[in-house]
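Checked the freezer inventory, then went back to the computational side. Two predictions to log before the end of the day. The first one is the construct we discussed on Monday; recording sequence and tokens without edits.
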Amino acid sequence: MANMKPTSLNTGRSIVPGSRKIISRKRRMRWLGIVAGVVIVGLLVTFGALYLLPGAGQGKRCRDEACIVQAYADCEPAYLEENIEGTTAVVAVQDDCTISKRIEELDPDEPEEVRTLFQGAEMTCIYPEDRLTEDMVTVLASTDYCSGELADSIDDLRLAELTYG
């Protein structure tokens, strides 16, 4: 009984002086914690979304193939997002002076077999110095200096076209 605070009989509220300030301070701290949490989550989501965008973290954004050729010659990270007949691909010069090519999204009208074969496929290319041309930057260009799932799929498709017309 000694530890109990005196309360008003009508309201059940504490009649100890200053107790409202303590409650008010607790509410304020709770709201500040909630606001801080929302702000932190918002920042994490924003920066996470920016990092996950195509090409994010891959250096400068190029507008044409010539920019990629120059970035490769200078061994500077850069990327080019291409849209070829409804198919989105990203070509990027990496930190290690290689070029990665990746199919991000295929045209929805493509057959399911093609979508399964190419969706998300990637290849890495290492071209000899001064051998990279603007024509070779395109994702579906020659796979002579490339390896990876995308290179294998392109080669298989070309072989099938040659074999079955």
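The second is the one RB wanted added to the comparison set:
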Amino acid sequence: MAQSRDQRILSALIAEEKLTRARVELEQTTWRHPITRWRARAKLQQRVVDQERQALSADDLNYLVDRFVNASLEALRTTGKYKTNRHWLHHEVDAYWDQLVADVAQGASLSASRPGGLPARRSSGPSARLAEHRLDALPALVERLTPAAVRQKLETDRAVVRGVASDPSMLTEKCEDGSWIVQHRASGLRAQFSPGIGLPGPGPFGSIFAKWYRIDDLDPQSADRTDPGYYEGLGIGEMIYLHGASLAPGMRWPGGSVATSAGALRRRLHKLDPYIWGADCETCTDHFKDNKDWNDRKRSDFPPH
């Protein structure tokens, strides 16, 4: 049966967004040979074409709503209006929740309704065809992007996400090299802890590798789970670090060079126990007047934090 005009527009936009997501997946993967990369891209493009041929479902519309709401959230993040390293659904964001919801609804509606808000990476194809149409061609989507609808969606998402973040269940696995992996069961976020770092000073010292996507998944049911990266910034990393460190009591964990969000985590842990957790710290900088490094200091050296 032939698709209606609205269905064709929506189907094209969904296909374009899935292709965009596939491109991101591709860019995050290192390919040693350009031919391998080209073949992988062609395979992903064919997968999107096959998806476009499938009949539309309610899930497709939900995906499209998610696309515009998440794009609006990301746009707000880049403007710096809401200064936080936390996830948008973390409890620290509650202080300005009402204004955030209003801004997200406005941004999602605007970006969806104007042609310039649609993806335009090629001169032809789904994005070019979509640029000829306005949001009034998709009344079902309009209803999903009203302020009241966006608020309901975000509050539902918030309850689900916080339920995942509050789950204390952890998976652990010992590795042959003496390291161990700790994985938060509900989210899939994970880190690998390695002992035996050769640093001077009272030790022993260990290191933490926290790029979860480069660590083996310990959950056999992971195929049915949301991408773990979605749950970053909710405080799960702190739970993982503390659990992993508890498996090696007395081991110290240097800070090193870390990303902005990881630096905030390190500072929180350092405040809990400055001897065990290394991090940039104004309290320590103001207190110590010598040139000793963090690893050279005894527990009794550190001031209250």
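For RB: The two ends are 68 Å apart (CA to CA). The first strand starts at residue 170 and ends at 174. Let me know if you want it refolded.
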